[in-house]
Amino acid sequence: MMNMNVLIYFSQYSTLLIGMIVVTRWIYPYLSSKTVIGWKKVSFGLLFSLLGLLIMQMPLATSHSLHMDARLVSVALSGIFGGPWAVLITAAVIGGYRLTLGGAVIFPLGALICTSLISIAGYYLRMKYVRWFIWIAWLIGFAVGGKRFYGLS
Q: Which of 41-45, 86-90, 111-115 is the least confident region?
């Protein structure tokens, strides 16, 4: 029998991601003009920071009193769509909040840095290989997920 907490956990995150997509699609036309190109990266960083902070408010408690969340998704998306400045803002906000929570710090912040670097690489690959980006996005997803699966975060 499947654990119902896991289903609730993933449905909450899915709803949050869908809401984030709707908000991003709503404000994107206002950010796509040439005059606000710098603000576009900052706004992506702030939007994905907000997403990461909301994700961190709904952790999944494990049997060993550990809390798990999917904050790295917001970092990865921030870097891929917003670029280095956006991921720097997102990682700083989420990393700063994570430091205030206490507990183990090395592995969560290491995972945050690794995911940030992977997403920046994804951003540059997206810019260079537009035609092949859907395959590159799958590889980035597997890299972030595999890092999580093998206990590197």
A: 41-45
In eight-state DSSP terms, residue 130 is S
User: H/E element holding 68?
Assistant: strand 67-68
> What average pLDDT is seen over the chain?
78
- Which H or E run contains 60? strand 60-61
Q: Are 82 and 46 in contact (CB under 8 A)?
A: no
Confidence class of residue 53 from pLDDT cuts 50, 70 and 90?
confident
CA–CA gap between residue 127 and residue 132 (Å, rounded): 10
Q: Which of 115, 41, 28, 39 is nearest to 71 (CA)?
A: 115
Query: Which value, to the nearest 10 degrees, does the dihedral of the CA atoms of residues 46, 110, 122, 86 take?
Result: 20
Q: Which of 69, 70, 68, 90 is nearest to 78 (CA)?
A: 90
Element (H, E) at 63: none
